[in-house]
Design a protein that fits this description.
2 copies of one chain form a homodimer. Chain A is α/β, with parallel strands linked by helices. Chain A contains 13 helices and 8 strands. Chain A has an 8-stranded mixed sheet with strand order 2-5-4-3-1-6-7-8, sandwiched between helices. In chain A, helix 12 links the parallel strand 7 and strand 8. Chain A is globular and about 65 Å long. The interface between A and B is large, with 39 and 39 residues.
Chain lengths: 330, 330
């Protein structure tokens, strides 16, 4: 009977630890403020079969912006830093690459001129740095860059500059049966390089902006190529469009940090039943960077003005987060 | 001790039945031919951790065309029958809808003229029947049509005209840890209406052609609208492009039935490690429709000529399938 009993003991212990982990703090890097309380209350109510706000697991869909919401975005979008690094390399090898004033301004660090050229200027930079190679080769190059490049202010690897409290939120949601998606203006192929390792979000749950791609047999090898030009911009009104296209359901939780996320939160929280919108407000000039209304990158006006009346949670980074990055004690 | 023992007995029974179901035939509607053997051998080898061909579950991705592969497509793509039904209804209510020769030909059943107008003709029909309404309203209308329309030859509901052997294959793959996707020239929003109930494939695993969509706040209600014009054609070279965009990994198994699937099978089976390509060859003029090289719909030439040399399995519907549809004894 010993064998039987030991099987029972294991089952009992498993039950005990499952109970323990449900009681453990799922968000240890969040301070005990209202923000944390509201998040936990929402997750508990939608995952409790006895609650009138219960949501079936297949409808527990959570979407998050990436730049400024899951990882940093200052002083420039990290993907733009990658593009400028690669543009400089290419120009050193072959100066004729710099065939326009925008490209020349970009390598000289004259970002005002680049910004003034708008999306056409950006396309010129993308055409030189993100096109004319296979998706596989592009992603190997991004991986190489992430492994070697360091942030100009923190000296950290870019894919270490992810927010520990948001990592905990992603894990907590998945533990409670949610599917977690990235829905970001960042590049689809770019983000997939690190999203699974950094956030536990697999390639099919990454939605992003994308250059056009094409299928070709190159020297006998079937290949998906990255071409120039932008096929889809996953920002503002593009976010609900991208979610409809790739997920096909309206999420019940959406998180962002800038006005580029407004429509995604608006659409998400306007649905029937329990809904949750959250905005990461960059209030922490000590541990990170404080910016909102006046910033070129991550500009946040409507979210602050209209979000609270729409029931959205405005997360005060300085007050609500005990830790910012996973690998530092900052 | 009785309680303990009964717990043990339940565990024992569960183990016993799990063993039984592993031994049961996973493809009972397939005849015992080479086709069935080759499919089972492939699935067993990639899911056996002791096999040199073992594939980790997150890479076990299977993609299937829909029209002619998972459900019928004769005498016309079912979605086109829907579009023509709706065009007739609209023209009865308001004859001015028929503003071009193509539209007039379409309601008169002159499909030769419609076909001659190519994709521009199709866009005209889509603009009248698939555009100018919300995704939610469009899908409710498709649901209504599926519930009431009947196939001109079989008299069956269209979403009952799915292939029982392919249903079993989809279930078998999922039981063995595969993610199953539809990758079809059919409409994304159209297929999502029935794909989950008919095939067990949820909306986020449906990849298809799509009209452009936009996000608008309509009378205060945040809405995703279907606009006119085609945003993406998920056929031929478009299929690897769609898979890269939405899945972000190369599948290890692909199934189709026409030359529109050639590039998807080519890309899938050219990858490293174990790969499987299969083509449903419509050889059964008794229980279904026999067609291949000469057919306007579901034309199959390259697959028959080049597929076998590429190692693809050509499924002979008449010989390999014991049953065609789930709800009939045909």
């Amino acid at each position: 009977m010993m064998k039987l009993f030991s099987g029972f003991a294991v089952a009992l212990l498993a039950t005990f630890y499952a109970g323990q982990s449900a009681l453990a703090d799922p968000l240890p890097s969040w301070n005990d403020t209202e923000a944390k309380q509201r998040i936990i209350e929402f997750v508990e109510t939608v995952s409790d079969p006895g609650s009138e706000n219960y949501v079936t697991p297949s409808d527990r869909i959570a979407v998050f912006d990436n730049d400024g919401t899951l990882w940093g975005e200052q002083p420039l979008y990290f993907q733009l830093i990658y593009a400028l690094d690669r543009l400089k390399q290419k120009a050193e090898a072959d100066p004729s690459v710099l065939s326009s004033d925008v490209l020349k301004a970009a390598v000289e660090g004259d970002l005002g001129t680049v910004a003034a050229a708008g999306s056409e200027g950006l396309v010129e930079i993308l055409n030189v740095t993100h096109a004319g190679l296979s998706v596989v080769d592009y992603q190997a190059d991004v991986r190489d860059w992430l492994d070697t490049a360091r942030h100009p202010v923190t000296g950290m690897a870019y894919d270490d500059m992810i927010y520990q409290p948001m990592l905990e939120l992603l894990r907590y949601l998945r533990d409670e049966g949610f599917a977690t998606y990235i829905v970001s203006g960042g590049g689809l192929h770019f983000m997939r390089v690190f999203a699974e390792e950094a956030y536990g979000i697999p390639p099919n749950q990454v939605i992003g902006s994308a250059t056009q791609t094409s299928y070709e047999v190159v020297d006998g090898v079937p290949t998906v190529m990255k071409d120039g030009n932008i096929a889809f911009i996953d920002d503002k009104e593009g976010k609900p469009v991208g979610i409809d296209s790739k997920i096909g359901k309206r999420p019940i939780l959406a998180g962002g940090n800038s006005d580029g996320d407004f429509q995604m939160l608006e659409w998400t929280t306007a649905g029937d039943g329990p809904r949750f919108g959250l905005i990461v407000h960059h209030t922490d000039g000590e541990r990170e960077v404080a910016y909102d209304r006046g910033s070129h990158i991550g500009k946040l006006v409507r979210g602050l003005d209209e979000g609270p009346d729409l029931g959205w949670l405005i997360i005060d980074m300085a007050k609500d987060w005990a830790v910012v990055y996973p690998k530092t004690a900052m």
